[in-house]
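Internal tracking record. Fields below are filled automatically when a chain is submitted to the structure queue. Please do not edit lines marked as system-generated. If the sequence contains nonstandard residues, flag them in the REMARKS field before resubmitting.
Queue: standard
Priority: normal
Entity type: single polypeptide chain
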Amino acid sequence: MRQIQPSMIMAFIVLIIQALIAGNAWSSETYQKPASLAGAKMEQRADAYHLLQSDLFRQELNDLIKRAKLTVDDASRDDDKIAIASFLGDFQQTHGLIAKQKNPLGYFHYSSHIWLSQATPDRGQYDAKALHEFMTRKLGAFSNEDLYRVSYCLGWSLEMGQDYMLGLFKKLQSNATLNKNDIVKLVTNYQLYKVYERILATGNQILSAENDKRYVIEPNVLIKTKSGVSLSAVVVRPKQIVGKRPAAFQFSIYADEAWHIKTAIHAAAHGYVGVIANTRGKRLSPDEIIPWEKDGEDATQVIDWIIQQTWSDGRVGMYGGSYSGFSQWAAAKYMHPALKTIVPYAAANPLTGLPIENNIFITPNYQWPFHVTNNKTMDHSVYADGKYWDDVFDTLYKSGRAFRDIDKVEGKPNPWFQKWLNHPDYDDYYQQMLPYKNDYKKINIPVLSITGYFDGGQISAIDFLKQHYKYNPQANHTLLIGPYNHGTAQGVPYSHHSNYQLDPVALEKDTEEIALQWFDYVLYNKARPSLLKDKVNYQLMGSNTWQHHPSLQKLNQEGLRFYLNTTKDKDGHYQLSRSKPRTLDFVLQTVDLADRTTTNNEAGMWPLIHKQLPKSNGLVFMTEPLTEAMQLAGSITGHFSIAINKRDVDIGYNFYAISPEGEVVFLNYYIGRASYAHDMSMRKLLTPGKKTQVPIVNARMTAKLLSLGSRLVMVLDVNKNRHAQVNMGTGKDVSDETSADGKEPLEIKWFSDSKLTIPLKPWR
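SYSTEM-GENERATED OUTPUT FOLLOWS
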């Protein structure tokens, strides 16, 4: 559940998905579920709320902790350690854990709860007046920046928390027993909710009053554009600064007034006028809700409006993550002269992220159109039950029905998703909404892109960068990337991603703070943000260093070439060989695409660290042990040489590193449709039986220090699972193919002259 910020809903989605699918490395010891949980009805938010209010359930949690002998050391993440200490009532330990954090103010809710618990030891009662006085005194003493940091941790929703707990309760109810990992999730998320339940209302009341003293806050601005559309906006100006100022502008479909105010206040705390506008149809806008299609045009007209205001100095910088990253690129297509810089983080692109990845429609976040179009704000209930959606996608996959039937399987029409299914290639639909080819030549403003190795949408962010440099070699475009997921790429990282503990230097990234420092650098000629020492800035996992390089393209080229050796070893593995084969050979793989009792190319991304290579139906290719410590940094490039008995195939791989001690670390995954590998805008079917080269496009970047004796592993496969369309290879629109089209199993020959460049170089 964690700290849920409505404007970072994608981060919330990612956390839900990860929490529900997480594997674990605990011992096999298990424990009985609390009776109240096992017997509770869990159908709607009110059911979760009822259990959260139960004294009996809390007592059962206490008993469960005692039986499992749970301590803070059983949690890996600092957030979870703090929550466990708080639940146990160990205030000294809670204070100590908070004090060690890089941003202690991010845990102000726990600090306030400690004070309240000590002031009113009876958990069922507390002194509302005393809490009010405490909050007034504490918040009034904070600087503008510290007040914002506190507001960030108060940017929470009890309703969304109840939705999350509903999903978690349902998931745990389906387990026969609980392991320690389950208990940690249950206790920490329960405690986080109960802490906020006690302090959130008072905290936000005092916070609002304090902000009113410091800022001019206009929450209900309605902007009438030249095209006749009305767009809703929040505007915040610092009271203590007079004169005209630049605007820090976000354009978002995620309409949430309270969070927009917080975000705009942060910009105002840095001396900017914060402007957060919503896409058409959202919040106060009376128009039809239209995702993606009109954002460039509309954002440009908001910039027109901004520079006409009395407080504007005529300069605008755009920033923001995920969908707001997309909207910046959409606006950059029009290149308004007042737009001086953009800072897209974890930038989305519908063709290279969601709902399509390299021309393959995928199911994660299928429900997103409901989330953003069901009402004028956001329908958070859509994501409350992760298991429900998993079951939908599983049912579709096992049924063998056409992918286009996905909403019929689910039971609710999804017209937006159906519309996107009609655009499987990079056609005019996408070209009109984003910069395309020579449009990038006009984008001569400084750009800062931020993403993460584990950001599902990383390929979108990096594709924007690659296209920018391809069509504008003189582009001023900087990349910051590290071991972050879609959520933490947009904010402050956690101590862990899955069961991987981040290097201390990786925790130095504070995305929004860096974005505002970038504005200072571009607009006021102040110091460049300290992490940005070159065009490409990446955190090398395992080295506790940030590395810097002048070019992503050149970084990818600084690697070693490998080929597919077709000889098996005693373990059934093949070799990724440094030597080009003297004679051409191949490995034959047969995949029954109509058989939905098995899967191929399931990503082994969670947990990140495994005790052994995850089992799969793919072909395992492994390097020889490294003869020296190496830096792996960049994306795999090259091509696969294949021949198939059909007209198309979706290929993929999972990429791992294995330490000399046998620890397996997941690095990244890839999927791509062979018929679009040469041109995403035009499908070119393969000739059955004919050998062809399929280039790797939009591979994900990673960076890790590899010790002497480590090996790299590529598990090569055909993509066939519930997370995406299944390409039956007939040449028809894949959305219309059914398992009946797969009567003949796919036969794919992986030839030994497949050539891969893995970005490896000696570590110095």
